[in-house]
Amino acid sequence: MSAEDAFNEYINAVNSHDAGRLGELLTADTREEHLDVASAAGADRVIRMNKALLNTYDDLRVENCRVLATGDDFVVFRATITGTQTGPLDVPGLGVFPPSGNRVRGETLGFVEIRDGKVTRATLGYNAGLIFAQIEGKAKAT
Q1: What would the pLDDT profile of 6-58 be if each residue is shown by its tens digit?
Q2: What φ, ψ does residue 27 adopt, rounded to 5°?
Q3: What pTM did the predictor assign?
Q4: Max alpha carbon distance in the chain (Å)?
Q5: How many Å apart are CA 61 and CA 120, to the nearest integer?
Q6: How many CB atoms lie within 10 A of CB 93?
Q7: Are the C-beta atoms of 102 and 57 separated by less than 8 Å?
């Protein structure tokens, strides 16, 4: 399986909210980082972090995903992440954003490393301040 194929499987698992499938696509020592916001190391913790996000945004989707570069063991991509905040969002160092019912939308740039057909590292960069402003109703999801 190519790195891009493994990446597409990962995105499909996120979009279908399939934590079981997500777990199958991660190495035991995987790491997921949301720059300046949160990170998790180890498959169990990464799955737990993703489940928390799916509970916060019950309609979370990764859309308009465009692969910018790919190699034997990596994918660089740009995508739009959307969702409606229907559950609490606990952000380390900032506190808990209670459910707002507000729609959020943000552009992300990501780097995903693949080993043996599985995700071993996912690093995501996005404007967290904009997401928080949308949750609080200070900005509109466009």
Answers
A1: 999 999 999 999 999 999 999 999 999 998 889 999 999 999 999 999 999 99
A2: -75, 160
A3: 0.91
A4: 44
A5: 21
A6: 7
A7: no
